[in-house]
Design goal:
- This protein is mainly alpha-helical.
- It has helices spanning 10-30, 35-60, 63-85, 94-111, 119-150, 152-160, 165-177, 182-190, 198-207, 210-240.
- It folds into 2 domains: 9-60, no CATH class; 61-240, no CATH class.
- The longest helix has 32 residues, at 119-150.
Length: 255
């Protein structure tokens, strides 16, 4: 296919099977204990992307369907992040952090005209930003909760000295939680020198215009930095204030 970066056919299928086999073999040799999880993740990726490819054409033709699709992505991201952070029902507040990171970025990129107000443009940009905010929320929230568990004595000492709950928690969990921003910062620093991310490669292959490809990638990377910074700040605040915890939900019969 002219202009395509990947040829769809038996060669692609064989390559996917072989690559999954490499990952599983390494997992078995290294005794990682995630061989089955790797296979399931790969299978889900194939099925989910096949389904998305089959409906995306209809979705991007309608603004209502585009908005609904973005909301579905937000809901799935929130559910995934909640599960990664805590078994408690308080994990549903991951949606607050993710949404807080995504909304301003989409608003700026769309209202400024940097991204055209078309479904085919909005869906991929929204997906990238939502995915980044989800990862930042999961990592920031988990690290904050882990540190509160690991350094409970420091937290309680802060309370004993008269500090507020939020301030004592921030002293304990802020340093580790903000480490969730290191990967996107490193990616932004080294783009073009170490990596050529998907947005750059995709636009370059599709249009053949290096300037457009570079512009698209810069917009995506800086948008991700903004979304992930907001998401981490919000999830850290929610953990510090005790809104997100690892405490099991109380049963209705509990007195």
């Amino acid at each position: 296919m002219s202009g395509a970066s990947v040829t769809v056919g038996w060669g692609l299928a064989a390559a996917l099977v072989l690559l999954v086999g490499v990952a599983v073999t390494v997992s078995l040799v290294g005794r990682f204990g995630i061989s089955r999880t790797l296979v399931i993740a790969a299978a889900r990726a194939v099925v989910q992307l096949a389904l998305v490819a089959s409906v995306i054409v209809a979705v991007v033709r309608s603004w209502w369907l585009t908005a609904a699709f973005v909301l579905v992505m937000l809901a799935v991201a929130s559910w995934t992040s909640a599960r990664r952070m805590t078994p408690s029902r308080s994990g549903v507040l991951a949606a607050v952090a993710i949404t807080a990171g995504v909304v301003p970025v989409l608003a700026v990129t769309l209202l400024s005209g940097a991204v055209p107000l078309t479904g085919i443009s909005v869906v991929p940009v929204a997906g990238i930003v939502i995915g980044g905010a989800m990862t930042a929320t999961s990592q920031g929230g988990r690290r904050a909760l882990d540190d509160l568990d690991a350094h409970r004595d420091q937290y309680e000492a802060g309370l004993a000295l008269g500090g507020r709950r939020r301030d004592a928690a921030m002293l304990v969990c802020r340093p580790a939680a903000t480490q969730a921003l290191v990967p996107p910062m490193d990616q932004t620093r080294t783009v073009g020198l170490v990596t050529l991310p998907g947005a750059f490669v995709g636009v370059l292959i599709g249009s053949g215009n290096p300037v457009q490809a570079a512009a698209a990638q810069v917009l995506v990377l800086i948008g991700l930095l903004a979304a992930e910074s907001v998401a981490v700040a919000v999830v850290l605040e929610l953990v510090a204030r005790g809104a997100i915890t690892r405490a099991p939900a109380r049963s209705a019969s509990a007195g």
